[in-house]
Amino acid sequence: MTILGSRTQHWADEADCEASARALAGRPALRDAYVELHGPLGAGKTTFARHLLRALGVAGRVKSPTYAVMEPYELEDGMVWHFDFYRFNDAQEWEDAGFRDVFASRGLKLAEWPEKAEGLLPCPDLRIAIEPLANEARRVTLAAYTPRGLEILA
């Protein structure tokens, strides 16, 4: 995969994470994108996903899909699917759960731990890598792999 563009951000705290999520939510191209979230345990992938889902208009509880693998959210202007592949270890589960159909449909797909489903997932539009630093700080690299990703990154 070739990176078409990238940018690095510094989040001093969770407020910066939320501000970044709000900014991305304002990008129309995000509505049909596939976004991967990378980082070690505790990096803030789920926190970022929650802020993004809230900014997109998800009301009610936003729970981690760690055990369910996928949580769907219906918005006024489309669907969002939040995946957490941390416990994913069976390619047959991909077929049985209908994930191929989800990724072929319109809507935003957010995936935590996508490396656990490597070979099954499409090329991401945008890859967000979150690196914990001292205290609450994070170094965040956003990389676009598609023209849609570039549009979101702009």
List keywords for this structure.
alpha/beta
Task: Outline the structure in words.
This protein is an alpha/beta fold. The chain is 28% helix and 29% strand. The protein contains five helices and seven strands. The protein has helices at residues 14-25, 45-56, 91-96, 99-104, 147-153, and strands at residues 5-11, 34-38, 70-75, 78-84, 108-112, 126-132, 138-144. Strands 1-7-6-2-5-4-3 form a seven-stranded mixed beta sheet. β6 and β7 (138-144) form a beta hairpin. α1 packs across α2. The longest helix is centred in the first third of the chain and has 12 residues, at 14-25. The model has no long low-confidence stretch (mean pLDDT 92).
The outline comes out as: globular
Mean pLDDT: 92
Alpha plus pi helix count: 5
Q: Encode the helix/strand succession as letters.
A: EHEHEEHHEEEH
Task: Assess the beta-strand content as a share of residues.
Answer: 25-35%
Cα separation of the termini: 19 Å
User: How is the biggest beta sheet arranged?
Assistant: 7 strands, mixed
Number of strands: 7
Regions with pLDDT < 50 over 5+ consecutive residues? none
Structural class: alpha/beta
Question: Roughly how many Å is the radius of gyration?
Answer: 14 Å
**What portion of residues is helical?**
25-40%
